[in-house]
Please model this.
Amino acid sequence: MAELSVLMSLYIKEKPEYARACFESLLRQTVQADEWVVVEDGPLSDTMYALLEEYQKAHPGLIKRVPLEKNQGLGTALSVGVPECRNDLIARMDTDDIAREDRFEVQLAEFKKDPELDICGSQIDEFEDTPDIIVAHRSVPTEHSEIIEYQKKRDAFNHMTVMYKKKAVLDAGNYQPCPLMEDTYLWARMIMKGAKCKNVDEGLVYARIGRDMFERRGGWSYYKKYKSGRKKLLESGFISNSDYLYTLAVQFVVALIPGKLRGFVFKKILHK
Model:
């Protein structure tokens, strides 16, 4: 068992059966974390409360629950959760995804090999119904210099795969409000603070994608939120005006095309 905290967030619309699959994948790790920090982002369903109590009873001392009075959104929930983690190394996990059995072992080895490393992510394999049938794969750059350049236009980290140092996250100001991209904004500020980055060139997480996910990533309302988030990145000094205008142009097209075509673009071009 490693001195490692797993940081997760739950909210009322999440499915208990997905959370159970996630928890079981954490228990199957070849090197297990000694702490799970679960932020309850507002009141949960009775079924989800029962699930948490079941795992607490079966694994005493493993799960630290952090309840919020009302739903705040993922970024705020994680900003509360980071300081609650007792270990300096934190692994992010989304509660509807599944970790490969050696995920923690592989990433912990990277931190041991390079003590200066601050954040380490990986590729993801995306599925709809079962991780046995992969429908898309999102690859991101692996080396520090490539990550910095890529991050200026698209996320260079798959958020649900990252393992990072608590101190580096807090030194950069933790998760902060930024429409649609609290994680994007955090990576930018960590990089500007000098964080050393890496991605493992393997799919260490099976990421669940709902059939309606691509529908939600479109429309004028989504585009306006995206523009607001990118404006915040521009104001931070991390991206240039040309980066800002380029990404807005691309997103404008992607957001306004029909949902089915958008799904094709994501699966076959952006995530392949």
User: Anything to note?
Assistant: The chain has eleven helices and nine strands. The CA atoms of residues 187 and 222 lie 21 Å apart.
